[in-house]
Automatic annotation (TrEMBL):
The keyword Signal applies. Gene3D superfamilies: 3.40.50.2300. Keywords: Signal. InterPro entries: BCAA_transport, Leu-bd, Peripla_BP_I, TAT_signal. CDD domains: PBP1_ABC_ligand_binding-like. It comes from Halopenitus malekzadehii. It holds the Pfam family Peripla_BP_6. This is Amino acid/amide ABC transporter substrate-binding protein, HAAT family. It comes from the Archaea. Residues 404-424 are annotated as: Disordered. The keyword Signal applies. Residues 41-384 form the Leucine-binding protein domain.
Amino acid sequence: MPRKHDDRRTFLKSVGAAATTVGLAGCAGLGGGPERDTFLLGAVTSLSGDLRFGGGVTQRGYDMWADTINREQGGIEIGGDTYEVEVEYADAQSNPSAGADAASQMINDGADALLGPYSSNVTLSVCPIAEQNSMPHITGSAESPQIWQEGYEYSFGTIPTVSIIGNEATSALLNLEPQPESVYVTGVNEPFSEATAVSMRTAAEDAGVTVENYELFPRDTDYTNVVSAAQNADPDLHLHGGHIGSHVDLVSASEQLGYTPNGFLMHYGVNTGSYKDGSGAQAPYTFGATVWIPSVDRSGGVLFDSPQAYADAAEAAYGSAPDYTQAGSTAAGIVYQEALTELNAAPPLSQDDKDELIGILEEIEVNTFYGDVTFEVGGEYHHNNINTQTLLIQLGEDGSPTIVGPEDAATGEANYPVPAWDER
């Protein structure tokens, strides 16, 4: 009986043939390249620029996978032989255009597959390159729903779209007592952050909570102006979508001006060392959205037995606690590992191998320390893993996170409403 993805393989082969005809990929990328005894994964991420912290997080995640499988298993076993994994990096420079060039570089260097960027705006430039060149691509980080709504056949993501994460975390926060009656929503004007802010606003509207304001700002905005406007609205909650720098600027300006709503919910990166170090004494009591922390109750699987086992190994390797982006990036490598084992083709991969790999990824189910990974096929979340549960966390006085929602996952009670700045 034919496999379920046989029709998809036929389509992918036609796409690959078209790409070859118009010369969209280098010969090494399309034909498998020179012989070698390693699987070559090209990783495109921001190693410089204002997103370099997040780029470093994804790099640690990808390296954690490659270093562990090479050290503990000697690589990936194919037909009785073992092939180590080599991850080669190209710097996206926190810029979509540079990210597209970096992806092309990795393909022309003969990569068997791609590991994706940290940010959504860079990922949105890399996905078309992967598509045009018929190159498998898994991102362990990007969360913008725009990526999956495009219906790319060659791109996959291990972290659920932020339209789910932001909505579910906000809904959990809105269930706390006393239930809030109003929210103020802000975000950074770029794809991921805008999608986050929209999801927060939608959750509030669906709950019948008044949205006092919804506004997006440039990355380099002066947050004293943002906070002044929010303070005049006097909301119960302030919800913010952005990267770590904007979170730090928001809470710093809030303390400076004495703006204390009952709580701040921010996404992404509340549980990172960068946010805690950047905001210092302002970090405690912040609410955040995540899909993984070391204390979450999930079974382990391939390579790591549990979330805590992964966290311990990562901290020993890098001297810092991993966040969910690092975990999701390691999970992306594990998914490739399992798919390549099923493919059972030695490197370098031919185009037929890569097309077959896409079919395997569409059907794969992998149990990992990060959670179960399966990819949607079709619909608005095409090739996104939407199965990992969203967690609402709150930082304690010592900066440690507690899962405070949803109720079935909570490990502690929220400190809510949060203390005023002068009472901490």
